[in-house]
Fold Oxidoreductase.
Amino acid sequence: MLNIQLNGELSISKLVIGCMRMNDWKLSTEQVVEFIEWCIERGITTFDHADIYGGDHRNESQFGEALKLKPSLRENIQIVTKCDICVPNAKHPEIKTRFFNTDQAYVLAQVNESLEKLQCGYIDILLIHMFDLLVDPRELGETLQQLKSEGKVKYFGLSNHSPLEFDTLQKYTDMRFVTHQFMLHPLGIQNYHNGTMTHCLKEGISPMIWSPLAGGRIFKPTNAVEENMKSVLETIRQELGLTHIDEVVYQWIFKHSSNPAIVLGTGNKERIERAIQSAENVRLTREQWYKVLIEAGYTLW
Ligand SMILES: NC(=O)c1ccc[n+]([C@@H]2O[C@H](COP(=O)([O-])OP(=O)(O)OC[C@H]3O[C@@H](n4cnc5c(N)ncnc54)[C@H](OP(=O)(O)O)[C@@H]3O)[C@@H](O)[C@H]2O)c1
């Protein structure tokens, strides 16, 4: 399984296990340990969390219980987590509506809470989950510096920011953001339209792509456009002699020169094995790649 070198010291696996749906997988702590070990054996070493994932924001805790049961796992994996989205939840009844918060006190408290839930001493990459329109970039830069100095977070990145938002926050910290995590799939190409993918090339950043299969909608079209995309993907699948259209989608994402990582949404081992095949062998032609882009609604001229 391939790795992506994000800077001189840090690499992540090209496939990342997304832990957003982990509570749906109904695994015992022993089974989470077994799953993490299974991933490591296949070279998938990076796990994507957020403070808010899972019912009652429990998914970091579920993962942390596995690390407690087998502490040696920690040194063989990279943990990504995120903060700044506030949503009403049982643990924080004082939150009554949805908003973003990058105030220093809030971010520091959230990172402490994530470390507690994950039962580990540091986070490899902390992402600011969404752009906070009330952000004070200077204060946020100082907050990130403090987290780095305290050894709580090794590296930082952003998620779901526009190129302008990314550049603005980058300007206020000497630490280079190591990645940008955002959505991309054949039913959602706004990050080609708005220049975010090209911004990754400009900055030399490998993005982390979330919801690569549109949350499963790729397989269950809900309208004529989605039906059409499914049949385009099926035609390409046949042309390439692949077993499933998920492989076409993964190859379509991997083909971009920014060397993206894909954050997988499945915990199904057979499906993960197919994703590994796709990461290791991108055979989609330039013409097939553009066919998907055009059918997704991109106008070339
Ligand atoms: N930064 C952000 O704002 C953000 C936002 C959303 C998500 N994320 C991250 O991205 C990760 C992935 O997102 P996602 O879960 O939406 O990814 P996704 O891969 O687009 O969707 C996963 C869903 O598709 C289903 N699926 C996968 N392969 C399938 C197949 N061959 N046939 C039928 N169904 C299939 C899965 O079901 P099975 O479980 O049954 O396989 C699951 O329900 C998350 O876990 C999270 O870590 C980040």
The longest helix spans residues 224-240. The radius of gyration is 19 Å. The chain is about 40% helix and 15% strand.
